[in-house]
Input
Amino acid sequence: MEEEILAAGASVISDRKEARLESYLGSCVGVTIVDKEGGVGGMLHLLLPEPSGADVDFEPDIYATTGVPRFLELLFGRGALKDRAVACIAGGALVGQTFDADPSMDIGGQTAEAVQGCLEKNGIFVEQSETGGLFNRKMVLDLRSLSTTIEPIWQTEDSADANVEKEVNFNIERAIEAVKPIPQVALKIMRMIERDDYTMSEVGKEIRQDQVISGKVLNFCNSAVMGFRDKIDSIDRAVVVLGEKRLLEMVISASVESSFAQSAHGYSLCKGGIYQHALGTAMIAQEIAAFSGKAAKDIAYTAGLLHDIGKIPLDQFMAVNAPLFYRKIQREGIELCEIEKMRFGIDHAQAGKLLGAKWDLPRNLIDVIANHHCPEKSEEDEELVTVVHIADLLMSRFQVRHELDFIDTERLAQRLARIGLSTEQYPVLVDRIPRNIFRTGSSST
Output
């Protein structure tokens, strides 16, 4: 059966057919509206309740107050009748356990309320609503039956392994030795960016000497996540189109991809999920750095890209332990690093610090890798670590399909303040998430 995954800001309306629509929802809200008698229905995936005032291009389907009315207009245009239409709502998870009383932080709840209000105003009956809470949901619309199902993304109830601790023969030194190293050209460029003492002729020479990296860079530049209309077919052309610093980021992004596991098991919830999460975190970190002015954009991008490298050596041991991790996160609300320490004797932040030292990464990047779950422990640049921490949180709440994670949010207000922001500006940060990120989560099969 054909499957289409909708990212935030996407909507699909269809007649009955052998296909299904899916949305993976954290703090985002998914809506299905169907007219079974008329044989038409669809799904909408919303990011925010309303525009935040951020300086971003207006896309009506991103927001509940504009997206739902537009969706209804299109649905009625396809033959659906208001008095036969039935809706379901899902998602709207809380950012964290401590923010259910903070209206500015409960974006998911506000979005769900805005959807409910729009539907009530238009006389649409809501037959099912599963919103709020702390955990992620999967919403599916079967276009043949026009029926909607809502379920947790992490299914543990039917697994006998969910309550069993599997034997783990884990040695961190051996696991790190087994990790494929980052290409030397990427390491050189990371050090150049940190020192800010490079020339593009020097960088171009390094790239051209490695044909594999050159090919990967061009392929990455032409990918959907970059969103360029014109094909980039040479490194020289890439410099013109991207600019010098953006090209350096593309070189690093393309170079490190091979070091990340490409399976759909372990930490990943889809093929290549760890890398896709890292790439999205990098893009959001760069945006937060620019908005807050508290970190260099290029360094924030690289730090975001590498923040989870500690999951690489642990990933091979996660596949057999995944059901146990799902249970402890979903049912017990335990933060990911705590479970890793209980199971492996080390968490991915500590493992990443060891791997970063082995790769001889710059100290500020190792600091981010080691402390991105607890920026207060930073020994080099707490503001940079905080920028990446918040980017990681946003990625984990608004693009939930990629990897297993659960981040402690108890100190989020203080961490926002550390980079000069307030909880009232949280919706603006969400609205500034680069839209290209959502394209990596949307697909048809």
The domain at 2-153 is CATH 3.30.1330.200 (60s Ribosomal Protein L30; Chain: A;). The chain has two domains: 2-153, 162-444. Strands lie at 2-6, 11-15, 19-25, 29-35, 40-46, 86-91, 125-131, 137-142, 147-152, 443-444. Residues 156-160, 441-445 have pLDDT under 50 and may be disordered.
